[in-house]
Specification:
Layout (H helix, E strand, L loop, with lengths): L5 E7 L5 H12 L4 E5 L8 H7 L11 H12 L4 E6 L6 E7 L4 E6 L6 H4 L4 E5 L3 H15 L4 H19 L8 E6 L13 E6 L22 E8 L2 E8 L5 H12 L6 H4 L9 E3 L5 E3 L1 H20 L2
Parallel strand pairs: 1-5, 1-6, 2-5, 6-7
Antiparallel strand pairs: 3-4, 7-8, 8-10, 9-10, 11-12
Helix pairs in contact: 1-9, 5-6, 7-9
Length: 312
Amino acid sequence: MSNRPIMLGIVGDSAAGKTTLTKGIAQILGEENVTVIGTDDYHRYDRQQRAELNITALHPDCNYLDIMQQHLALLRSGQPILKPIYSHTTGTFDAPKYIKPNRFVVVEGLLGYSTPALRDCFDVKVYLAPPETLRTAWKIKRDTLKRGYTAAQVLTELQKRESDSEQYIRPQRQWADLVASFYPPDRNADENEPSLNVRLILRPTIPHPDLSQAIDRDLSAQPTIRLNLDRDMGKPVDVLEIDSHATVDRVNLLEQMICADIPDLHRVCNREVNPNLGNITGTTGELLQSYPLALTQLLVTYHMLKATQERI
């Protein structure tokens, strides 16, 4: 077990940005080193059956959580699985696929922290919590462009899912080691990802790097990177906020603070060495870079690599 895979969980509501974060981290670590598992594959019912039964994909009864638990435990011990495959394009199931874990396993989906057995599978747990207005905009954009829905259908589905989101998805936030909330810098800003700030809640459930030296302490200007104490769900936490317009010098300093704690971390997750860090595709197909996204990916990567030193 000293060489078992490192397991990262990325949980959040539909269209919260899970796949974007997952893809970025896999690119940083090297896709050949990462096995990505989407827990939507463990749906119990296909799209038509869910409509007939009047149940949403967010409800635990709509998912084979017991099989998911068994499969994640097998992956954590380094064993392969025969994983079901759910197609979002057709809303039906394809043939199962043989999956062998690599050095890192990233599990992204809706209900990854919903049971103690599932939570125990992960070395690092991340929860994505964008403002609901932003998540709605992201879901409309994704489902109309990639899944064949109309905007009206998406809004109807969101309304139908709201009670399940409130009861089953959002409470999982309490189990995360890191909660990431990307948000527009002001209410009038557009929802273009490169312009988004990020608020990172750092819980003391895992040891975070010392970032205090990277904080901008210039009292004559509004700091673009801030670290404060706060409370989340009634418990004390550190909160790291990174503005989209943070300067490259300040971002580079924060990167150095994150990387300094692990030997040779620079070659894996330094933004200058690895240009994939923080990259996203703009609305017209151009490649853009978001500093808040880059630093979020970097911090999560830090914890995954740190876990390789401490795994049992």
